[in-house]
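Example 286, ligand zinc ion.
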Amino acid sequence: MNKESDKFILITVDLEDWFQVENLRKQFPRSSWNTNLIRVEHPTRALLTLFDKHNIKATFFVLGWLAERVPELVNLVHSHGHEIASHGYGHELCHNLSKDELLKDLERGKEVLEGIIRGTVKGYRAPSFSINENLVSLLSQTGFVYDSSYNDFSGNKRYGALKGDWVEIRPGVLQNRSEKLFEIPIRNINLLGRSIPWGGGGYFRLIPKGFFSLGVRYILKKNGVFVFYCHPWEFDPDQPRVDGLRIDYRFRHYINLRNNLLKLDSFLDRFSEYNFVTCSELLPEY
Ligand SMILES: [Zn+2]
């Protein structure tokens, strides 16, 4: 089969555990993390098996706190040929940290991962896509080459904005020349001046698969690149159910976990004629 040679799909995984999700923060403050059962290994292994089956290399944005507790899992992901990038250390939203605190979180997260894989970590994704100006000004200073934290869906208050001097230098890649940084944004459906969230996560679980695929084909036709994101806990249907969640958080967190792996399997089948690349592979020479 001929590949759609000028179209690219990036599969990205934010590697964090079930209790580190922002919607569960009230129930699981950072101080409680050490008391929770780490469940990330099983769903991550399931994803590795799935990606091997489809011969896909993905990008894993790994949380430093978790990496310290499961270094062998990080190495396993790396040994399967996937790119290891950073999701920060403590999963704090960028706008909740001072510039100094953010710098420390970036440095610590990167250091932990580089110590484990004994290689360079080039990419970063902010928790809840909370990119802000402080982050952009700090990333290249801390040795990151690219960021993938911009999501133009405006309906989520945690998501940040992309300010400053950005130029699209190739489909799916923006560059900030003054900061020497690349940005690989999440691509949504932009229709009539509105952005409809279509990058993955809960939206992938919620939207019927045929309809989701239609939207992805639309994004690919328009932009040439589709960036998909997911989390291992979205493939862990037996994770503990948390009491006292806001009803919308409960819905978003637990909807359609049971069949999600099969759904992703079917999605990857449908798009097998496209090029699947890691974030670093999409970047131009720099
Ligand atoms: Zn996250």
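Summary: The first strand starts at residue 4 and ends at 15.
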